[in-house]
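Chain A, query sequence.
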Amino acid sequence: MAANKENGDPVEMERLVEEPPSPTLPTVNPDVEASKPPGMVLPPWIYVVAWISFSSLVILFNKWVLVTLEFKYPVILTTYHLVFATVVTQVMARYTTMLDSRKAVKMTGRIYLRAVVPIGVFFSASLILSNVAYLYLSVSFIQMLKATTPMAVLLAGWALGVSQPTLKQAANVSVIVFGVIIASFGEIDFVLAGFIIQLGGVMFEALRLTMVQRLLSGDLKMDPLVSLYYFAPVCAALNAVIALLTEVPRCTMAQVLHVGLFTFFLNGLCAFMLNVSLVLLIGKTSAVVLTICGVLKDILLVVASMVLFGSQVTALQFFGYSIALGGMVYYKLGYEQIKGHLAEANRHWAAFGAEKPILRRISIVALAVFVGLALLGGVRHVM
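Chain A, predicted structure.
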């Protein structure tokens, strides 16, 4: 992994992406875990479930506030998330030991102005555009469009000289893009403005990741919470200026109270807990687990969007998105790792069948029914 960072490998950069419409900061040094006092040891699956839950909850929560509750001020919502994160990280830095690793960061005024502030600009733009897209597109379609992130990271890396293009990478990314194009053709509620806005958010995220990768060549070593400690104030200030110029004059207290102050508090808390769960997941598992969990989370979000918001996902979209997800997994892991993990999964599945054959049969039937209903629903929507 260290070799990936030194060479500016875009695969490693793309792995540092975190869930978009929430103030999740890059995992700059996932191999270094801050020393923690001994305590209760939890099984790894707890951290997996926590990260997937908070990551999905933040996205669905934002969609619910912006669309269902008709609080159509995505910049204000993003600014609130970042202010919430700023306040909490400042309190944690002063009264807890969870951010003590920041003392090892060689942060200077020059580095802050030349690295943190520009990255904060791109991060703010990415967050704002990602939230604005929810006003036009469904959660399921947005998750499909985010599959183009590897392509954007490669383009940004090539343009800024962080990485050199290879034919294999270009071919793999082309497969992902091809799948997303198919999924886009299958989208029923396609809105060009939302499509362009979301792709803009992906590109700004790719630029942010590329600049973070360049920052890795220095002495800065930060986990997600420490990154949030440094980046959140800059992003909050930038977003606040944009919000004051665009949305604050139109937003009324009645609209805020319609959503509810407690709802806003829970929304900000969920966004912050996403960062905490990411720290725990990285510290207790591995980059491979994070990659697989990311794909699983995207699939669950598509399903949740269909159930909660009535998003219509067609059979053509399922087909295209499957191609994109397959290409993304291959891009991140490679053939040998995929082969090894499939073999390991088969061994676990066989052991599960030997120990609990009835439960395995029930699982197969439930999965088959779910897939069948999803595909039939997609075909019905097309017709």
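The mean pLDDT is 77. The CA atoms of residues 14 and 85 lie 23 Å apart.
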